[in-house]
Design a protein that fits this description.
- One of its GO terms (biological process) is tRNA modification.
- Belongs to the tRNA(His) guanylyltransferase family.
- It comes from Sistotremastrum niveocremeum HHB9708.
- One of its GO terms (molecular function) is magnesium ion binding.
- The chain has about 260 residues and is of the alpha+beta class.
- It has a domain of about 180 residues: tRNA(His) guanylyltransferase (Thg1) (Alpha-Beta Plaits, 2-Layer Sandwich), CATH 3.30.70.
- About 40% of the residues lie in helices and about 15% in strands.
- The chain has a six-stranded antiparallel sheet with strand order 4-1-3-2-5-6, sandwiched between helices.
- α2 crosses α3, α4 crosses α5 and α4 packs parallel to α6.
- The longest helix is centred in the middle third of the chain and has 30 residues.
- The two termini are about 45 Å apart.
- The structure holds adenosine-5'-triphosphate (2 copies) and magnesium ion (2 copies).
- One magnesium ion binds next to β1.
């Protein structure tokens, strides 16, 4: 089909393929969620409903995009790891990034009222997104370790910060000043001695974030077809599993070694 005389402008669209055979990590992060969490009265430091809503949106993304093998979420962010060999949208960066960020956002909004039945959305939330390529398994593991370590650092800080404000009746400025320069041992100690909180007993969702992995189970034997007794082919069952486990140590990666 012959184009119009204007069609040459299409040539200004530059291809943006992602390097073949590399691990792709796509991270979405809530835009201005400090404000969003305040205007929607999120419980501080951790609003369980908000985290579950993030998990629901991430699960929906993984149901739609089968090449995502692992996801990790904390606070207002989610990271998605793709199969190294994925050919999704011919590995076009902006196509992949824009559709997934858009899909995640839609799922967040569609599920809002399920998790916040008595809090209407005040304005449309949005998410930013980026894709980073990693050459080997080592960087992939270190990436996820980095995010989970971040979860721990932020959660320990926020738990103590909000205890000082809510129970210690400090101003937020005083709470920040009190925490400045403290190391994690001191924070644990303050939590325990001042507020009787044993950090390790807090919800694993808050301390470890959310991990969604795609598990493939091949049934060992399949009962014969009832109608003619013939043997049926074992269909691998693919399930999405959400947990709040440690992903820094070896155990997790040994268990899911087949996905990388
Ligand atoms: P940016 O647009 O640069 O990402 P931001 O305001 O979203 O800015 P972040 O560093 O992404 O800043 O931090 C997200 C903020 O959202 C947290 O600091 C916290 O205040 C709030 N938040 C996100 N999820 C929750 C939650 N489940 N419970 C309570 N607060 C939350
Ligand atoms: P891609 O994901 O590659 O963009 P696509 O299916 O969205 O694929 P487009 O080239 O973007 O394809 O074309 C959008 C299609 O959506 C149109 O061809 C048409 O079939 C349909 N469409 C969009 N808007 C309307 C509309 N207002 N009324 C009827 N059909 C529409
Ligand atoms: Mg944010
Ligand atoms: Mg964030």
């Amino acid at each position: 089909m012959a184009g119009s005389k204007y069609a040459y402008v299409k040539n200004f669209e530059i291809p943006d393929p992602l390097l073949p055979n590399t691990y792709m990590v796509l991270r979405v992060d809530g835009h201005g969620f400090h404000r969003f969490s305040e205007s929607h009265s999120f419980t501080k430091p951790n609003d369980q409903r908000a985290l579950e809503l993030m998990d629901a949106a991430a699960l929906a993304v993984m149901q739609e995009y089968r090449d995502i093998v692992l996801a990790f979420g904390e606070s207002d962010e989610y990271s998605f790891l793709f199969r190294r060999s994925t050919q999704l949208y011919n590995r076009r960066q902006s196509k992949i990034l824009s559709t997934i960020v858009s899909y995640f956002t839609s799922c967040y909004v569609m599920n809002w009222s399920k998790y916040f039945p008595s809090t209407p959305l005040e304005y449309p939330p949005s998410f930013d997104g980026r894709i980073v390529l990693y050459p080997t398994e080592k960087e992939v593991r270190d990436y996820f370790s980095w995010r989970q370590a971040d979860t721990h650092i932020n959660n320990l800080y926020n738990t103590l910060f909000w205890a000082l404000v809510q129970e210690g009746e400090m101003t937020t400025a005083d709470a920040h000043a009190t925490l400045k320069g403290t190391v994690s041992g001191q924070k644990n100690e303050m939590l325990h001695s001042r507020f009787g909180i044993n950090y390790n007993t807090l919800s694993a969702r808050f301390r470890k974030g959310s991990v969604i992995s795609r598990k493939t189970e091949t049934p060992e034997s399949v009962p014969p077809d009832e109608s003619d007794g013939s043997k049926r082919k074992a269909k691998p069952k693919v399930t999405l599993e959400i947990s709040h486990v440690d992903i820094i140590g070896d155990e997790f990666w040994n268990e899911i070694s087949d996905i990388l």
